Every structure is written in structure tokens, then in C-alpha cells.
Amino acid sequence: MPRINVDEVKPGMTTSKPVSNENGIIIIKENTELTDSIIDRLKKMGIEYIFVKAEKRFSKSKEDMLNEVEKRFNRMSNKPIMDKIKRIVREHIEELYDRNR
Amino acid sequence: MTGIDKQKLRFKVENTHNLPTIPATLKNILNFLENPSISMNKISDFISKDPVLTMKVLKMINSPVYGFPGRISSVNQAVLLLGLNVIKGMLLGVSVFELMQKAMVGLWEHSLGCAALSNLMAKKKGLKSPEDITIAGLLHDIGKVLLAVNIPEVYERLIAVTEKHGLTILEEEKMVLGTNHGEVGSWIANKWNFPKHLVEIIQYHHEPNRARAARVECAIVHISDILVRARGFGFAGDNFIPEVNQEAWDILGFNDEDIKELLLSMEDSLEDYEDLGE
User: Domain check: are A7 and A53 in the same one?
Assistant: First the structure.
């Protein structure tokens, strides 16, 4: 479970542990999807780090990830071994996103 | 493009520790690494007397990138377990972290990804010292850092035009510098008396067919590099995948399922990667 700085938290990430304030009172439950206003509140309360779910580290959508893979392999068309590597990596990314859903 | 004299560049790179832009703590480490008579005791003392360095080294060794089952709690223990060369490489790896971040955003992540994947591949191939290969994965792009600190303007421009030209950074380096980050990295690895196989892996991670002493190891880092780029973990200076060397691919002999399993394990190893290096 990655622990990340509140400054790097983006809307859409989900907490993997409850967030408590300095008095130990839980202010945000586990499994909460973060919004701009929640993130603002965390910053105002002086919270430095929170734990978020790993899959939300992928700030990109699966489709964007796959498109980028295509682009990276652009120059390597018609090379069977590179096609194979591309296919394996595509399948890997699909599985990664499905697994973390 | 500005002609760069290779011998002059080499001299610069070999004297990186004299650069005014290098932080004092790193200078100490580089000076230390240069000493040809480093012993296990000396390196252990050197790291132990610096609490920040001790913490960084122990954090790295105990991270899932290495996958040791127990907890290694002292530098002495680490040196005994991993040997002088691995600790030397690790000392360099953790201390250039900040420079790496500055040289190229994402290079540290790319390097960690390669380290983790190289470690897993070495284990899968049943190699005797997966830790050596992990270090090679971590340091394979050290030449990029050396170029970025020694000829900052030239290298920055080089990276910028790489994208415009639609080339890989390797091709652009060859064109502009007449050398490449692999060779540049090997200069310093040689100077610091790193073991021959590590020098070779750094030098030939893009041309694994030229490796002599460490063919399998070089193939592992070569394939790891390409897979980590393909997956899009971190950034290695360009947006194109260099071509895989068929011979290296065949030496490892992994099938599709093997590769997928290795990639998934790599993702698990890197789940907490943000913690490493700080």
C-alpha cells in the first residue's frame, strides 16, 4: 500500500487506510474515493501523508496506457519479436487493470 | 551539432567528483569509491558512520526489489551477506538518486524497475548471485546521469531533439557524442574497479551480443530494460523502444507466460517504490 504525500494525491485515488487527525480521530474512512474538496480539507488540516490503494497510482486509464504502448512500438512494426513483446505487455497491462478493479 | 571530443569527454566523466555542482556528501562517496584498496571493513565503517547513508542502504536491501526473506538490520551483516561489490554498487546507486532525479525525471523509477525485473529473471534462471545482477539493473543507465552532470547543456538539448528526430536516446547520443551512455558508464565503472561483469553489463546493455564475461547477465538487463520501457514504468529519456537483440532473447529462453509472470512479480516488488531513495 503506497504512502504518498498529500501534495501528490489526485482526485479519484482511494484511501487504503483510515486517515486520522492529530488527536487520533478518524476523519476519513478506509476505501474513500478522494475528491478535490476532501484533498483540500486534508491539506488545511496539515495532514502530510496518507495511504492510497496501489491501483490508483495508475493515474492514466487503461486505454491511455495501451495507446502509449502502441506509440512506443511505432518504429518497430514488422519485427515479429517486437510484436510479440508488445502483445505480452498489452496483455500484462490489461491483466493489471482487471486485477485491481 | 557541436563536435565533442571523446577523449575530453572521458576525462571529464572520470573526474566527475571534481565538479562544483556535485553535493559535498556525494563527493565524499565518489572519492571513497575511487580508492582501489576498499575492503569489506572499510566500506562497512564508511557507511555506518553516516546514519542517513546507513538508512538508505538498509532500506534498499530490505526492499522487495531484492526479495530477501529476513530483515537485514546492520551494515556489517549486509556486507557479509552481499559482498563488497554489491555494496559498492548499492552505495553508488543510492547516492546518485538525487542526481538521477534531476538528470531525467523518471530515470530512478526506470532503474528501480530494471533492478527488480533483473533480480526476478536472475532467480528464475537459477543464477548464483541475483544481487549482482540487481545492482547491474539499478546502475545500467548511470552513463546518462554522468552525461547530464558533465555536459548539462549539450545533453539537455540532445534529449529535447531526440523526440523531434523520432530517435532513441541511444541513437541520438551516437550521432551527437560519438559514444553512448553505456560506454560512458563503463568508463567510470572501470575507474572504480567495479567487477568485470558489471562493467560489461553497463557497457553493453544495448548490445548484449558483444558481452563476453557476462552474456546471460547482460541479456537479462537488456531484456529487463526493454520490458520496463514497454510497460511504461518510469522514463529513460525517449519514447521509443529500442530493438531487442534476438540472441539475448534466445539465451534467456523465456516463454510468454514466463514473461507475464515476471512482469506481475515486478509490479508487486515495486508497490512501495516511492519509499526508496528518499
Answer: yes
Question: B259 to chain A: which residues are within 8 Å by CB?
Answer: 88, 92
Contact: B243, A82; criterion CB under 8 Å:
yes
Q: In this predicted complex, what is the ipTM?
A: 0.87
Q: What CATH number does the domain containing A36 carry?
A: 3.90.105.10
| Alpha carbon separation from A43 to A36, A46, A51 (Å, rounded) | 11, 5, 15
Domains and CATH numbers, chain B: 6-275 (1.10.3210.10)
Contact B113, A92 (CB under 8 A): no
Mutate to test the interface with A, among B241, B265, B272 (most CBs of A within 10 A): B241
In this structure, the answer to whether residues A37 and A71 fall within a common structural domain is: no
Which residue in the set B232, B263, B271 is minimally distant from A2, CB to CB?
B271
Query: Residue A62: what residue type?
Result: K
Q: CB A69 to CB B230 under 8 A?
A: yes
Q: For residues B123 and B242, what is the distance between their CA atoms, to the nearest angstrom?
A: 25
Domain match, A49 and A66 both: no
Please check whether residues A38 and A11 belong to one and the same domain.
Answer: yes
CB spacing of B244 vs A81 below 8 angstroms: yes
pLDDT tens string for chain B (278 positions)? 456 789 999 999 999 988 988 888 889 999 998 888 999 999 999 999 998 899 889 988 888 888 887 789 999 999 998 999 999 999 998 888 778 877 787 888 899 999 999 999 999 999 998 999 999 999 999 999 999 999 999 999 999 899 888 889 999 999 999 999 999 999 999 988 899 999 999 999 999 999 999 999 999 999 999 999 999 988 888 888 999 999 999 999 999 999 999 999 999 888 766 555 44
Domain holding A95, by residue range, is: 62-99
CA distance A95 to chain B (A): 9
CB contact (8 A) between residue B275 and residue A3: yes
The number of folded domains in chain A is 2
* CB environment A4-18: b (16+ within 10 A), e (fewer): bebeebeeebebbbe
